[in-house]
Write a structure and sequence with these properties.
single chain; mainly alpha; globular
Length: 307
């Protein structure tokens, strides 16, 4: 029952994340991408600080000593840094691609995560999980196909936004690996605060760097597009899903978590259809079906092996 509880929590996280693509895409006409990330995670940090303060006021918690547990705190910092890089690449990339395509390209983490899991954790994915990965990858192949020319030939096409989004998928895979590792040794409060604080600080710094290098101007208009997106992404997504993922992912393997997270682009495509009027063609629908099939296969057949 614990396994299903853990997986249900991650599926709920994935549903929430699916909505962030549309919310962010709508807001990026009114705010620079990294400034959006900084404010989003600053809101989450503020909420977690209040949560930890009230929790300690009710029942004081003893945290590991800094001098004798530096490696533990460094692990918490590293977790936040991978999160920052994942969101930075994904959000900047979202300016140059569609919300639907961004969601599905982020889904490539389902392929990257088993490889990193094998390298870092010495845990070989099962044949069921590997089969799921292959089917999901086939689905992503179809989702990257575009119809060009009068004869409607299908080609695999990647633009700047697509490449940046793939970079984000790589760093999110590292993040998933380190959540599995850090959540078993670090207190929950430290992990919650380190992730949102580190992401927010580095996002503000990157926003300034991109402004100085003239890659992206620093701007914000607090209009009807930005405020709802900051509320959704800052509170519902950043606070709610960070808490749930950090708490419940440790009960399942990184590969299995990655496969569950590959549902994110499916939710993203459905929500983008209703909010942004983005539509999938026939190949996109085939790809979406493959992604769902791959997740189902891994769910039914997956069992990890240690070596």
């Amino acid at each position: 029952m614990n396994r299903y509880k853990n997986e249900a929590a991650l599926i709920f996280c994935t549903l929430i994340w699916g909505g962030t693509f549309s919310a962010t895409k709508l807001s990026l006409v009114s705010i620079s991408s990294c400034l959006f990330i900084g404010i989003r995670f600053a809101i989450a940090t503020f909420v977690f600080v209040i949560y930890i303060f009230l929790k300690n006021r009710k029942e004081p918690v003893s945290y590991p000593d800094w001098k004798t547990n530096r490696s533990l705190y460094f692990l918490a910092f590293l977790l936040g840094f991978w999160m920052f890089l994942g969101f930075a690449f994904e959000t900047v990339g979202l300016k140059y691609t569609t919300a639907t395509k961004s969601g599905f390209l982020t889904g490539t983490l389902v392929v990257i995560t088993p490889i990193l899991q094998t390298l870092f954790l010495k845990r070989m994915p099962s044949s069921g999980n590997l089969l799921g990965v292959i089917v999901v990858m086939l689905g992503l192949f179809f989702l990257s196909a575009e119809s060009v020319g009068e004869d409607h030939k299908f080609v695999i096409s990647y633009h700047l936004g697509d490449v940046l989004t793939l970079g984000g998928a790589f760093f999110f895979s590292l993040y998933i690996i380190y959540v599995d590792k850090a959540s078993k040794s670090c207190p929950l409060d430290i992990l919650l605060l380190s992730q949102t604080l580190v992401t927010s600080v580095f996002a503000f710094l990157l926003a300034l760097i991109l402004h100085w290098t003239e890659f992206e101007p620093l701007f914000i208009k607090m209009d009807s597009k930005v405020m709802p997106a900051l509320f959704y992404n800052g509170l519902i997504s950043s606070v709610g899903t960070t808490f749930l993922q950090t708490k419940y992912q440790k009960g399942i393997s990184p590969t299995r978590a990655g496969l569950i997270f590959s549902l994110e682009p499916v939710f993203s495509a459905i929500l983008a259809y209703f909010t942004l009027d983005e539509r999938l063609d026939a190949t996109g629908l085939i790809g979406c079906s493959f992604v769902l099939t791959g997740v189902l296969l891994a769910e039914l057949l997956g069992r990890e092996k240690k070596f």
